[in-house]
Amino acid sequence: MIIETLVKTRSKKESVELNSEGIYLVKVNALPVKGAANERVQEMLAEYFKLAKSSVVIIRGHKSSKKIFEIKNLE
What we know:
Shape: globular
Number of helices: 1
Number of strands: 5
Structural class: alpha+beta
CATH superfamily: YggU-like
Largest sheet: 5 strands, mixed
CATH class: Alpha Beta
Radius of gyration: 11 Å
CATH topology: Conserved Hypothetical Protein Mth637, Chain: A
Distance between the termini: 10 Å
């Protein structure tokens, strides 16, 4: 499954929400430095879908707030 995300870094409260447009809003407290925020988003999506971290792969948007992820092994 391919999902679109909108990431907000430096958030006080971390969360994953699906909005009415089908975009996942992911708030993380990590800084967007050296991939730390991307790593945290990957971890949070894995927790949200109850999968291993390796099942969540970033496809596009490594340096953007809009990212595309592939979710593997989702039943």
